[in-house]
Specification:
Blueprint lengths: L3 H6 L19 E6 L3 H4 L12 H9 L5 E7 L9 H4 L6 E5 L9 E5 L25 E5 L22 H7 L4 E7 L4 H11 L3 E10 L4 H10 L3 E3 L1 H7 L1
Parallel strand pairs: 1-2, 1-6, 2-5, 6-7, 7-8
Antiparallel strand pairs: 3-4
The structure holds pyrazine-2-carboxylic acid (VGL) and zinc ion (ZN).
Length: 239
């Protein structure tokens, strides 16, 4: 049975598929818990409905079936390149940014200008109260460079510098990456797309994610890239 309340709140729920349970295939699942931080739930960049995923995310964190559980934290310096304030421009406008090592501005990247959020060592950057943080095997801090944006848990927005994540997943022999957290249309989206690029069978647990804008935009793109969708209940039954 579909979770009626969820469907009602999210008309863009994508088609989910069943996690295969063939025992002859290796199945080594990892859980990525993306940016469950105060600013994205209660603070300067609140994601609609974010607090409603906390119970499921906590249950997933407690499942023993995941080989490794890695959390991410957006962790920006005060004048980060992604902040509207840094550029004295209106919120949510889009600008082109350049890599700090590209003074000739040969290759630009589109950047949405955000409210100041998740500044390192402020309360806004802390994990939300009630999140089961003591079961994480590792925490990745991203977006720490003043001039470089980083949505994905795997690498920066330029695809240049990798985080610890690719090495950790490889070391554990992971086959399947499961993503939950915030925000579905930014950090979860880019993390899931990179997980596919890095060769993992990749799952977004749709009722463990909330987005800043409409879910459908991100989900259509993810589907085209080969990301699969599943639901909390199926993960509970199979992992
Ligand atoms: C995020 C916008 C800016 C996210 C991070 O966690 O999805 N979104 N920084
Ligand atoms: Zn950010």
């Amino acid at each position: 049975m579909a979770d009626a309340k969820y469907t009602e709140a999210n008309p863009f729920i994508p088609q989910t598929e069943s996690i295969p349970s063939d025992s002859d295939k290796p199945f080594v699942p990892a859980l990525l818990i993306i940016d469950m931080q105060n600013d994205f739930v209660y603070g300067s960049l609140p994601v609609p409905g974010a607090v409603t995923i906390l119970r499921k995310v906590n249950e997933l964190i407690k499942f023993p079936g995941f080989k490794i559980k890695v959390a991410t934290r957006d962790s920006h310096p005060e004048e980060h390149v992604s902040f509207a304030k840094t550029h004295q421009k209106p919120l949510f406008t889009k600008i082109t940014i350049y890599h700090p090592e590209d003074p000739d501005k040969l290759m630009g990247l589109e950047q949405v200008l955000w409210p100041v959020h998740c500044v390192a060592s402020t309360g806004g950057a802390d994990f939300i109260p009630g999140l089961v943080v003591d079961r994480f095997d590792h925490t990745i801090y991203k977006g720490t460079h003043p001039k470089i944006e980083s949505y994905s848990a795997f690498r920066d927005a330029w695809g240049r510098n990798e985080t610890e994540l690719p090495g950790l997943l490889k070391e554990k022999g992971v086959t399947d990456v499961f993503c939950v957290g915030l925000a579905g249309d930014f950090c979860v989206k880019y993390t899931a797309m990179d997980a596919v690029e890095f060769g993992y069978r990749t799952w977004v647990i749709v009722d463990g994610v909330r987005s800043i804008s409409h879910d459908d935009v991100a989900w259509n793109e993810l589907k085209e890239r080969g990301v699969r969708f599943t639901k909390f209940q199926d993960v509970k039954d199979k992992v």
